[in-house]
Hints:
Layout: E1 8-20, E2 22-28, H1 42-54, E3 61-67, E4 71-78, H2 81-89, H3 103-112, E5 122-128, H4 137-146, E6 151-155, E7 162-163, E8 165-167, E9 173-175, E10 185-186, H5 190-200, E11 204-206, H6 214-222, E12 228-240, H7 243-265
Parallel strand pairs: 2-3, 2-5, 5-6, 6-11
Antiparallel strand pairs: 1-12, 3-4, 7-10, 8-9
Amino acid sequence: xxxxxxxxxxxxxxxxxxxxxxxxxxxxxxxxxxxxxxxxxxxxxxxxxxxxxxxxxxxxxxxxxxxxxxxxxxxxxxxxxxxxxxxxxxxxxxxxxxxxxxxxxxxxxxxxxxxxxxxxxxxxxxxxxxxxxxxxxxxxxxxxxxxxxxxxxxxxxxxxxxxxxxxxxxxxxxxxxxxxxxxxxxxxxxxxxxxxxxxxxxxxxxxxxxxxxxxxxxxxxxxxxxxxxxxxxxxxxxxxxxxxxxxxxxxxxxxxxxxxxxxxxx
Length: 266
């Protein structure tokens, strides 16, 4: 019984190295992501796809930048997937105070968070409908190219688009209107997203019902990369001591067997 409990005492310090890829997700949280041409809506569908991606990661670090009219790092690169999931669950259209959609600042924020290490060990994945309203995303893409960064883009939505359903102050839903009182219709701009990826040597994937796109990018382009050493730390390795009680038990068993044999002879 003692041996089965696998007793341990004494230990040594051993260096544990973690290898993987750094994946920075840049997620659109503008109001257009509330459009329901993808169910339940574009943003919630994105979050579900990211949760599926997390199940595949082994040693990779992942982080999130949320963007609308501005961009913020909401989760630094981490291998703590539980902590990452908490920040992902909190992501909504209020995560960035400034409204609108500015892909340019989103790309620049991603580059800023990738500037401290070798870019070839990192991946930027932008998830958006591409409905850019301000800034110059192609100029930002050129800066990414100069830095040697590949940008992968996932386009979510349909070319036909739909009206944007938002919650009003009373808590009921209504369709979003512009300053002139016209209903706002959001459409997928996959041409722009394709240009960004082409400029930086990345890949554009259109999300569909069966294949969102993040899994495809990870499986085909990221998981096959040579894994770099992301971090190393010292861990205690305890010595297994189950052998001693096991030997004692065997010795007692042999002794008892010997006694039984003697009794039978007598």
